[in-house]
Description:
Number of helices: 10
Order of helices and strands: HHHHEEHHHHHH
Largest sheet: 2 strands, antiparallel
Distance between the termini: 136 Å
Helix content: 40-55%
Mean pLDDT: 81
Strand order of the largest sheet: 1-2
Strand content: under 5%
Radius of gyration: 52 Å
Amino acid sequence: MNYYKRHIGDYAKKAGRLSMLxxxxxxxxxxxCYDREQFPTLSEAIDWTWASSTAxxxxxxxxxxxxxxxxxxxxxxxRIAEEVARFHETSDTNQRIAKQRExxxxxxxxxxxxxxxxxxxxxxxxTINQEPEEKREKPRKRSTTADIAKxxxxxQQTWTDWMTLRKAKRAPVTQTTVDGxxxxxxxxxxxxxxxxxxxxxxxxxxxxxxxxxxxxKPDAMTANSQTMSFAERDELARHKRYKEMTGRxxxxxVIEIVDTTPIPRI
Length: 266
């Protein structure tokens, strides 16, 4: 044995009144008995502790008589004998378990050994119940924004602006989305195109009829158009034609120069 438990409390209770020389003799004897796994005679005890002087030899003899029992010319201690026997029992059990584990592992490797005609582990057999890969049905692709057709009652420019807004908001455009917008437009009492135009001006991700401002509702829009002058209506028409032709809004910084020079009479 190269290890044993040393209980300090038990040692102090039984050997606490020993002298320093006797403590050394007892400690050396205990270590030697565990290390050699046997008990000494008197001459061996003196030799194991390297006792040379009279005082040292007397300390060894005192420890033997106090803590050991003489059995067949050998000084035996019960506690050391029990721990050595327990150590051998545990060691034999561990060896038996290790040998059994190794035998089981070798047996498993033998059973797993591949025969000559057996396919390698990474082989993928094709059975009669397994369809070839080229005949397997490919997963369907999800419908994208481009799959949704423009409604017939919506201007192309308004539709493009709305699709651009949805893309910027990372919001999908599905038939359900378009149908929902048409339902909300009907609730507001306006065409789908007018509803989408308000949506684009707001720049929001969604729009419902209940969210419309009073100035955005059909009655207010009609009243505004009725109070506009011919010049204002003509100006709005010019802006709309410009947007349809260029795809851009009317520049806010355009300044119109009007020639006020009178035309000479001929």
